[in-house]
Amino acid sequence: MFLGNVDFVQEYEITTSNFGAEYGRNSGSVVNIITKSGTNNWHGTVSGTEGNSSMNTLSNVQKAFEGLQKVPRFNDEFTGGTVGGPIWKDHAYLFGGFDDEIVSSRQVYSTGTKTPTPMGLAQLAACFPGSPTVAALQQFGPYGIGGGNPTPSGTISNPTLTNPNTLVTCPVQMGGVERTLPTFFHEYDGLVRIDVNGNTNRVYGRWLYQHETNANANSFATAPQGYPNNVPSFGQDFGLSWTHIFSPTMVNEARMSYGRLTVEFGGNSIGNTVPNQTAIDTALANISMPSGFLGFGPATNAPQGRIVNTWQGQDNWTYIRGAHSIKAGINWTWQRSPNAFLPALNGQFAFTSFSNFAADLPNQINVAVGTPTLDFREVDIFTYAGDDFKVRPDLTLNLGVTYSVFSQPSNLFHKITAPRESNPATAIWDPTLPLSIRTFPTLPTQYNNWGPSVGFAYKPGWGGGLTGQGKTVIRGGFRMAYDPAVYNIYLNMSSSTPRVLLQSLTGDTALANPMSAAPFGPSVRAQLAPFLTLGVFDPRSFNETQVSPDFRPDKIYSWSFGVQRELTRNTVLEARYVANHGTDLFESINGNPKIDGLAAAFPNFVPSGVSPCPAASAVVPTAIGRVNCNEGRVRVRNNGGVSDYNGLQLEFRGTRIKNQLTIRTNYSWSKTTDNVSEIFSTLGGGNSLAIAQNPFDTVHGEHGLSGLDFPNKWSLSFVEELPFMRSQKGIIGHALGGWQISGTYLISSGQPYSPVQFCINLCSGGSVVDNSFNRAFFTVFEPLRPYLSSPSAPVTSVGVFAADACNFNGTGCALPPSQLLSWQDVLQKGMETTVTANSVRLIVNAPQANTVFGTPYGSLGRNKLRDYHSNIADAAIFKETTLSKNSERTRAQFFVSFANVFNHPNFSSIDPCLADLGDNGEGDGFGIPSLQDGGHRSVRIGRKFIW
């Protein structure tokens, strides 16, 4: 749930560097939101705001690629009200509120990735007569789904396709596609709070309610193809708190709460092309095209949904004795989370070329058999004890220790697979195999999660003008904290063997199962049923996602040292050094690398004592050539990630300077490094690809700038109360007094990223990468990075050796093998434009380059490139008018707010794919931030009455 209505909130409290033990439950900041309560007087608010398309501007992509002359229809209306007052004066109070936000809008969804235009579909059908895949593309592809009036966009080209069956060649018109869909959003929020106060007891109860519907969203990046999704959600939270005062020095607070959140990613307004989660097994199969071409069908992981039930009980005890303020507490959380999730339940067909697609020659078919429902359960316990010890009037120490226990939600899979596989009548796998192979193991709960903390605050009285004799505070501290794993890790495990049968058909088997013209889930599963016979297969023949046997929470060490100096009565300057070291972070690795190609081409990169598994020793065919003969393709989530952050943070705060100006400005200079920033690939900025290029060097070889590294950040926020006619006397005073101007400004470095080679080395004849693993788990054929040539050359200047260009697409075959060519010209025009090493930033990683550099692993470090910086300002004009002569309690407010007031483009991310160099369509073109959506200026007006 999101509590965004400020009229519901009494205080937002963000703690980032407090080293008290009570804040040690997680490694990050602690956010407390305190809701308003009633008082002895009835009071309330009525408010409303509106923003619409007539007050907004077009974004850069809407102008450049979507050809829009005006902003698509948009209207955002927000209304709300609150009321609070006494139920029993001085003893019991009521506060309640309700709001709604109704957004009526239309969204242009566009992509520059190529697909046949309506003319191209006709050409394709003539070139490939009777093709089921072409028939499916005509009916279910981007132009078959008529919702939103799909039209061509971007650059139109006419590539020549060859029918591999008849050898007939034909040009097919291709381009991007865009459609305009209604994207309404509805949200309804409610709050009721009751407070009861006594002499020694205070009890309050709170109920929060939220219902949202987000229509035709692009959660799976498939909306341009005609597969948007709705995101309905419903949440409630009940809380009860009892504070008892035992004595003036001892207080105890007990809390209990229950929250329930239901969310779904499914359904839409154009015929439910992505079905609701209740019909998860009826969707169209996903059709995956080769790089550069647009697939269709719902994403393999759509639809999906989940319910999160959370019960919490906590107790916090405080005792003051002399110079000691002793605190202790416990937090118990039980979470139950039923999920609907099973990727590839309805099948996925993949093709190596568009010609092979049109000829219905799949190179891989994926399908899962199993139940898509899960019922996760987790118990977490957090305890703490601490002492805020006032050693002397100018020095306070914060001493504490925490202890955390996180249960293992993944043990659900053992509870599912063990009884199923123990019964021959229900077993999915070959019952002659050991039970340990056919079931998930149980993971032990980690009990060694101790977190000591120490902090201090010192207010020196010496130093004269340097310290201001009592106007300086020096603070610092150290602590350890732990974080449990995210549930996406467990969802990936749930969709792999041995919980489900996830079949990947390749080679002749895939070719023997061509796609039908209507490949919906039931028919796909029926078609592939002969290959999915239960009680026959070895689970190691299929893709497995595991966690390491000692899988545990991550661990964060944090420390800081800061000096705060009061400059004047209203201004403060603070400088802090802040750092942390993360260890046991979650990482995705290749748990059983295929190394036969690497061993043949570069044996020196294979560790001593390691050799490819021979066919005679492999327990399953997928083990051939891998390190471990007793396993197949295995993705492992372990605790192999490490990170470091060091930062200098400067802040100036001024409150009501000259009784009218409040200002705050921050600057941080920092560096963040890690070997993995996320377990999933972003295929954009941050964590472009989540797998190491060298499976034997996942730490040092990947250590570099973090995807979260923003070395320079500056922000400014201010509120200026215009000084004239503040008393608002008379008509003129009411008109001209009570004005405020506020604003924020943020400038930040861009986000790091790594170039991605979807299929360059492999498609040029290379054999050093584990193609089947990468394709199965990361949607790319290779995790290799390119070689760094000239750091001063433009990022889009990329070279390729002639031999690699020849093997990739037949360009440069008559040139010397080591002649460098322009990669962009090779890709876009098939031209042999020679370049020098000094004129290119990067050289693509392919077999000839491997020979030249003597290594198959690119020399460009991880996250060495950076996308566009952020430069954004927001502003607001505010007017408050008193409506009562005798009291300021009754007043009216009016405001106009401007988001991105200067309309400066702030591009959303980057295209890191080297194969997209020179495409230059919407969102499609390596290394050019301006091809991404840069946002726009939006304006809102609002009104509030306070009484």
Description:
The structure is a single chain. By secondary structure, this protein is mainly beta. Helices cover 11% and strands 43% of the residues. It contains 15 helices and 40 strands. The strands form 6 sheets. It has a 22-stranded antiparallel beta barrel. The protein has a 4-stranded mixed β-sheet with strand order 14-17-18-23. Strands 33-36-34-35 form a 4-stranded mixed β-sheet. It is globular and about 90 Å long. The mean pLDDT is 93.
Class of secondary structure makeup:
mainly beta
The DSSP helix count reads 15
Please identify the oligomeric state: single chain
Mean pLDDT: 93
Strand content: 35-45%
Helix content: 10-25%
The biggest sheet amounts to: 22 strands, antiparallel, barrel
Low-pLDDT residue intervals, each spanning 5 or more residues: none
| Cα-based radius of gyration, to the nearest Å | 31 Å
